Amino acid sequence: MKLRYLLILGVLVFFNGFIFTVLLLMASREFARPAATPSVLSTATPTRQPTSSPTTIDATATYSTLPTVTSTREPAPTSTMVIVEPTATQTIPPATATVATVTATSPPVTPTATSVPATATPSATTTAAPTPSWDFEYVAGSMSVSPNCAGPYFEGVILGQGGAKTNGVAVHFWFYDNLDCKVSGDDKPVGEWGFNPGLADNLKNAHIEFYLQVVDNCTNLAPRSAILTIPFDSACEAGQFENITFRYTR
């Protein structure tokens, strides 16, 4: 019985010593193993992406342990670390061109002082009177108008040089197709003339325009004054036209 216990105890002691020896050899090999040098296969400078991670392949060392206590050390295999890095494709976003708006600012204009010209002393200038275009002109406002139910009648006067009444000046009178001509002073006082158109009763209240003009003579009706137009509508309202004055202008 004791022999059995002793045998079991011896076997246990033997196994404990063997295990201790194996552990000691493994520890000594680990301390004696040279440091592994990683070699990078890619010579190009990789561009890493934030999501990619290198894959490291480690060589697994295999140890052969002799069954005897005294074991022969085999040379440890050299572990070579191989780092295989993926080729990253970098996508460069297109550059956004920012166009700067240049605003041209004009420099302020410096006001220039303008000298005030001296006030010129007005000098009296003599303006020559315009030369009349006609030998005679109607004196505005000279004609007087009054009713004459018997029919219209026209009479006036010619003023010559110096404003004196003058005979021998022809006056042309017409309306519609009726023409008449009188000379101042003929069967009249000095410088006076007159016309009686002798309208029919149906024309005494009709709208008619009568015309008067000084002319060269009753044969040659070349004008010597502007035409004076006298409107007529009713003899009983305005039928007597008197003191129609033409004045010499030369």
Descriptive notes:
The chain is an alpha+beta fold. Among the domains are: 54 residues, no CATH class; 113 residues, Immunoglobulins (Immunoglobulin-like, Sandwich), CATH 2.60.40.10. Helices cover 12% and strands 24% of the residues. Strands 4, 5, 6, 9 and 12 form a 5-stranded mixed beta sheet that branches. Strands 8-7-10-11 form a 4-stranded antiparallel beta sheet, with no helix packed on it. The chain has a 3-stranded mixed beta sheet with strand order 1-3-2, with no helix packed on it. A hairpin with a 2-residue loop joins strand 7 and strand 8. It is rod-shaped. About 13% of the residues have low confidence.
Topology:
Elements: H1 2-32, E1 39-40, E2 55-57, E3 82-84, E4 136-138, E5 144-146, E6 153-159, E7 170-175, E8 178-183, E9 192-195, E10 208-215, E11 228-232, E12 240-248
Parallel strand pairs: 1-3, 6-12
Antiparallel strand pairs: 2-3, 4-12, 5-12, 6-9, 7-8, 7-10, 10-11
Q: Helix count, per DSSP?
A: 1
Strand residue percentage:
15-25%
* Average predicted confidence as pLDDT: 75
Distance N to C terminus: 187 Å
**Biggest pleated-sheet summary:** 5 strands, mixed
Radius of gyration (CA) equals 72 Å
Unreliable sequence segments: 38-47, 50-72
Shape: rod-shaped
CATH topology heading of the domain at 136-248: Immunoglobulin-like
What would you give as the CATH superfamily of the domain at 136-248?
Immunoglobulins
Oligomer: single chain
